[in-house]
Structures are given as structure tokens and as C-alpha cells.
Write a structure and sequence with these properties.
mainly alpha; Serine Threonine Protein Phosphatase 5, Tetratricopeptide repeat; 14 helices; 0% strand; globular; Tetratricopeptide repeat protein; TPR-like_helical_dom_sf
């Protein structure tokens, strides 16, 4: 089976589209159908929603993974097009089917999407549900969702104006990112901590976080406008 994740570059959906088209032309059976679901997702990221739906419409589903991914990508297309209420039944169907099939990573993915399309009052509990599934999973790919879900939960708290809870949750996400050892996602998690600190009025601590990030980025020959924006707001 093709490594779907290896073909993705979410910063370049057009390039991802080309890779999935080429891979699908070489594949057969369920593998080809899985690749086509990701083609639909890549089209959606380019706001080519009708084309994405057309790809999914033509899939002949006879495989558990294909069935889950078809519902999941249908839901993502609808959410991205501004129809979260229409997306939710598809995402919930994907979550149920993934759980029944033992597809742990897709189960967590679908649950996280259900939380994103739910009303604000439901998002915290639904994200906690996804976290519980991720933490208890055997599949490492499912467990790797923990940091992203903690970030989402932190955003739920931030949107509700509970910055103390947001900071505590972003700090938990940062701890997981550091354990995972990926520099880019860890920097993002540090930025989230600094952002929460600024919103709590803890400006000296916030400035220290963003200044350290700026120095690391410069040493690596990189830049991040979000870091620069925070430093400007902090007067640093």
C-alpha cells in the first residue's frame, strides 16, 4: 500500500494533487481508491470543491478504509466550502466506520473533524473524546494526534476567553511536541504558549518566548511573520 502521508505537502496542494493523480494511475483496487480520496482532499484545499466531490462520487466503495476516507473527505470538502452542518453527518459516519473497522488513526482524524464542525459549546467535550481515543490507541499514527488535539483544545479555551486553561493546555501540547522531537511543530507549540502568555498580560515571559524563537529562526535562515507580529505587539 502506498504511504499516503509521504505524498502530502499541505503547503503545496497543487503539487500534492499531481502526486496523487500520478500514483492513482499506477495503482489498482482499494489502493487506487484510497489515493483518489486524497486527490479529492487536495482539490478541496485549492477550493475546487465541485471537482473534489466529483472524484468521490465516482468511487466504488468495497473496502473499509476507502469507505471511511470517502466519508471523511466528503465532510472536509463540505466544511471547507462553508457548510459545517452538512459536513457533520459524513464525519460522524466516518468516525463510526473507522471505530468498527479498527482504523485507529482515521478514527481520531474523524473525531477531530467532528469537533471542528460542532457548535462551540460542544467542541471541548468532543476534542476530549478524540484525545481519549488517541491516547489509548495501539497505532502510533493515532497516538501522534495528541499534540494537535491538545492545541485544538487550547484554542477552545482561548475562544471562550479562559486564558489560564488555554495556557495550561498549550503547555501540555508543547511537552508532547518536545517528546516527539520535531523542530517545526515544537516551535509552533512554543509560539502558542507565548501567545497565551501575552493574552494573560505576562508580557515579559511572552517576549522571552518569541525572542528565543526569533533567534532560532534567524540562525536557521528562516523567518516567521507570526513571531514578528507577536514581537511587534510586545514592543520587542
Amino acid at each position: 500500500m502506498t504511504d499516503v502521508a509521504a505524498l502530502w505537502d499541505f503547503g503545496d496542494p497543487a503539487g500534492s494533487e499531481a502526486r496523487f493523480r500520478a500514483a492513482a494511475e499506477e495503482a489498482e483496487g482499494a489502493e487506487r481508491l484510497v489515493l483518489l480520496t486524497q486527490l479529492a482532499r487536495a482539490l478541496g484545499l485549492q477550493e475546487r470543491y465541485a471537482e473534489g466531490h466529483a472524484v468521490l462520487d465516482h468511487l466504488t466503495v468495497r473496502d473499509d478504509e476507502v469507505a471511511v476516507r470517502s466519508e471523511l473527505e466528503r465532510g472536509r470538502l463540505l466544511r471547507s466550502a462553508g457548510s459545517p452542518d452538512d459536513a457533520r453527518p459524513h464525519l460522524e459516519a466516518a468516525a463510526r466506520a473507522a471505530a468498527e473497522a479498527g482504523l485507529e488513526a482515521l478514527h481520531v482524524d474523524a473525531l477531530h473533524m467532528v469537533a471542528l464542525v460542532a457548535p462551540a459549546a460542544e467542541q471541548g467535550a468532543l476534542t476530549e473524546q478524540a484525545l481519549a481515543v488517541a491516547r489509548s490507541a495501539q497505532d502510533p499514527a493515532a497516538r501522534r494526534w495528541e499534540a494537535s488535539l491538545l492545541n485544538n483544545l487550547g484554542m477552545v479555551h482561548a475562544d471562550a476567553g479562559d486564558w489560564d486553561a488555554a495556557l495550561a493546555t498549550f503547555e501540555r501540547a508543547l511537552a508532547v511536541r518536545r517528546q516527539q522531537g520535531e523542530a517545526g511543530p515544537t516551535r509552533v507549540a512554543r509560539w502558542m504558549v507565548g501567545w497565551a502568555l501575552r493574552n494573560l498580560g505576562r508580557t515579559d515571559e511572552a517576549r522571552a518566548v518569541q525572542t528565543a524563537l526569533k533567534a532560532e529562526l534567524e540562525a536557521a535562515g528562516e523567518e516567521d511573520p507570526y513571531v514578528d507580529e507577536e514581537l511587534a505587539l510586545l514592543g520587542g
